[in-house]
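Encode chain A's predicted structure.
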Amino acid sequence: MTVDELLNGERRENGTRNREEETMKKVVDYTEQEKRLLWRQLNHRFVYGAAVLAVALLLQMIDCDNVFCQTVAGLGQGSALGILLVGVLMTSRVGPRFLIAKQKLFQKIWKG
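Encoded structure for chain A:
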């Protein structure tokens, strides 16, 4: 079975060089789409982290003595720092290994 057959969901008897080239183009397109999706998701997380940090800093600048304001500001700073650290981790070379370890950990937790 060839990659083309896997992508198209069918099996063909005779393959030609032209079909192989089309198959490789499909593989590259699929990989590029996945990469764009992942970068877009990461970008959204960074924008969210920046917005949360901006709200936290705004609450600190208005010098709110209310316990609720201080709690929200602290949570915002912690969330922004967490998002930043996860982003750095995921875009580093250890990111894929981290994802595999996380999946194994969650599988152990859910199995018992």
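Residues 34-111 form one domain.
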